[in-house]
C-alpha cells in the first residue's frame, strides 16, 4: 500500500465510542470529503471496536489504521499512549483495555456506595446508564450526576465527597501498556508529549528517563498544542534515536475538525504498518 508524501493524514481522532461526538460514519465521511489519504480513530481503551471501525472504513473505501489511545501512569504522572498496528482480536492489548472498563465500573460502584453512606443517594437507573458508558466518560458523568443533588456545601463539597469516596480515572502503568501493545503485534507512542495541561510535559531528560525504563517506539510530534519549537525538538530527538513519529489533531467534535498533516511526517511509522510513502 502506498501514499504520496503530501497525502493528508490525521492519526489521533475520537468518536462517540469514547469521549467524542463524531459518529464513525460521520467522521469517515468527513475524511473522504476532505481528501484524507489515511487516518486513525484512537478511541480511549476501545480495542474492542477496532474491527467494526475498519470494516466500516473498508466499505467506504477509506484507509483506517488499527489504533487506540490508552490512559497510563508513569510514576505519579499521566501519560497517554497511542498504539497502532496491533491485533484487535483476543490479544493482550484487548484484554488490558477490557480490564480498564471493569476496573472503572468497580470504582464507580464503590464511589456511589461511599457517597450514599454520607447521605447522597443517586438514582439507580442513572448510575446504570453511567456504567454502560465508555470507561473514559464514567468519572465525569458521575460528577455531573452528583452535582445535580442538593447539598449544603454546593458543587465543591460534592466533588470532595466523591474524591473522598475513592472516585478516580482508572489508568494502567505505562510499561504494562507498551508490553501489551508489543505482544499484540503493535507499536506504542507517547501522545501529545509537549501538551502539559495535567499531562506530563516531556523534555529531553524526561524522554531519556522514560526510554531507560520503558521501550516506547516514539511519540506524537505534530499536535495542535505543540509549538513549532517543540515539534522541531521532538522530531530531531526522534531522528537521533531512530524513533517513530506520529501526527494527530485529537479531534473530538466537528467543531474541532481533523488536521491535514503530511504523510511523510510519519514515514517510519506508516512503513511499520505496511504503508509506504513514495
Tell me what the structure shows.
The protein is α/β, with parallel strands linked by helices and 278 residues long. The chain folds into 2 domains: 2-95 and 171-277, Metal-dependent hydrolases (TIM Barrel); 101-164, no CATH class. It is built from 10 helices and 12 strands. The protein has helices at residues 24-33, 50-60, 92-116, 124-131, 138-147, 154-164, 174-183, 204-213, 228-240, 267-272; strands at residues 2-3, 8-13, 38-41, 64-65, 67-74, 77-84, 172-173, 187-190, 218-222, 244-247, 261-262, 276-277. It has a 6-stranded mixed beta sheet with strand order 7-5-6-8-9-10. The protein has a 4-stranded mixed beta sheet with strand order 4-3-2-11. Helix 1 packs parallel to helix 2 and helix 3 crosses helix 6. The termini are close together.
CATH fold field value of the largest domain: TIM Barrel
Instruction: Specify the overall morphology.
Output: globular
Structural class: alpha/beta
Provide the spatial order of strands within the biggest beta sheet. Answer: 7-5-6-8-9-10
Unreliable stretches: none
* Strand fraction: 15-25%
**DSSP helical segment count:** 10
Q: Which CATH class of the largest domain applies here?
A: Alpha Beta
Radius of gyration: 20 Å
Which second-level CATH architecture of the largest domain applies?
Alpha-Beta Barrel
